[in-house]
Dihydroorotase (Niallia alba), 428 residues
Amino acid sequence: MSILIRNGQLLNTTGDLEQNDILIENGAIKTIAKEINTNADEVIDAAGKVIAPGFIDLHVHLREPGGEKKETIATGTMAAARGGFTTIANMPNTRPVPDTVENIHNLNERIQNTANVNVLPYAAITIRQLGNELTDFKALKELGAFAFTDDGVGIQEAGQMLEAMKRAAALDMAIVAHCEDNSLINKGCVHEGEFSKANGLNGIPSVCESVQIARDVLLAEATGCHYHVCHISTKESVRVVRDAKKAGIRVTAEVSPHHLLLADTDIPSLDTNYKMNPPLRGTEDRKALMEGLLDGTIDFIATDHAPHTAEEKAQSMQLAPFGIVGLETAFPLLYTNFVKTGVMTLNQLIDYLTIKPAKAFNLNAGTLEIGQNADIVILDLEDTNKIDPDTFLSKGRNTPFAGWECQGWPVATIVSGKIAWRKESVHA
Ligand SMILES: NC(=O)N[C@@H](CC(=O)O)C(=O)O
Ligand SMILES: [Zn+2]
Ligand SMILES: [Zn+2]
C-alpha cells in the first residue's frame, strides 16, 4: 500500500512553509521531495494545505472498559483522528483499572482490535487508584504500560509518592501526576475566585494543586524520577515547575487548551460544560500558563479529553462530573486564538502538539522524516467553521466551545501509512 501526497506545504527547519510531495510506502515515509513521479495506490492532492506530523495527546480518557456510555476506544480514537491526533495516551480511571497484568492485557487486546490511532496505555500507580497499595510496576511495564498515573485523583501521601518514584526511576519510567490535595478541595466544583464568590459556590483553591506539585518536585529531586505534571492550572504551580527546572530536577508539565483559553471570569452561567478538574482559574493564572508555555516551563499541550454523557452533565454545577472533551477542537481553537492573533507561530503550535510531547517522553514520533512511521495530519488553514458538537465523532458533547468560529481544521489523518480519517472533499 502506497500513498502519494502531492503539493503540500511542509514546515522546513527554519519554520517556513515549502511545497513538497511525500511518498508513503509500507507504513513509513519513503521520500520527501519537490516532485515525486511514481504510481501510488492512492494520491492525495494537498495543494494549499499544510502537512504536519500527526499530533500527540498524552492526556486522553477513552473510558473503555466500564465507561462505554461516555466513550469507547473506537469512538475516542475516531475523535482523535478527526482532530489530527495520531498518538494518544489513555488514562487509567476505567473499570476495571489497568492495575494488574490481567487488566492491562485485556486493555491491550481491546486497543489492538478497535483503536483507529496509536494508543499508549497508562497503568495505575495504586491498585484500583485507591491510594493504598502500589501496583507491580515491573510487570505492567513489561506488558507495555507507557507510564504510571492515578489521574482523576492525587497521590495523598508523600511516603507513597516517594516509593512510587523510586520504583519508577529504577525502571526508567515516568510518574504522571494529577495534583490535588484532598484536604484542600473544600467540596469545590469551580475555582475559588470571582465566579465561586459571585455564585455562592464552594471553590477549589489554587493551593490544592500547587502544594502537591511543590512536594513532588522535591521527591523527584530525591529519587531522580521523571515527574510529569498533568493539566497544570495555577500561576503558583508554574512558578514551582520553573524553579524546579532551574534546579535541574527532572520535571515536565502539560497544559490543556481550555486552561490557556478561558478563566473563571469567562464562565457565562451555571453551565456544567465549564466544569472540569482542575477548574478554570483566574485571569492571572491563565496569563501565567501562556508565559510558562512560551518560556519552556510547560513542555507541551494535552487536551485532557474527558467525555461524559448528556444526562450526567445535565445535573447541577455541584453534582455534574468534572471534565470536557477536547480532541476534535484543540487544533482549530489553538490556531485561531493563538497563531492567528500572533501569540505564537504555527511552527511553535505544531511543536507543542508533536515534537515536544515526544521529547518529554522519548517517543519515536512527532517528526516528518524519511524512514519514520507515516503518522501525518493534513491541515486546511483557510477552512473556517463553527464548532458544532453534533458533528463530533466522540460520544461526548460536553464542550464550552460550541459555536466558537475557528479557522484551521484537519482534512485528513494518516496513521502508520493508512488513512485513519478524512474529510470527504480532499479526494484527488
Ligand atoms: N479532568 C477532568 O475534569 N476529569 C477527568 C479526570 C481528570 O483528568 O482528573 C475525568 O476522568 O473525567
Ligand atoms: Zn486529572
Ligand atoms: Zn484527565
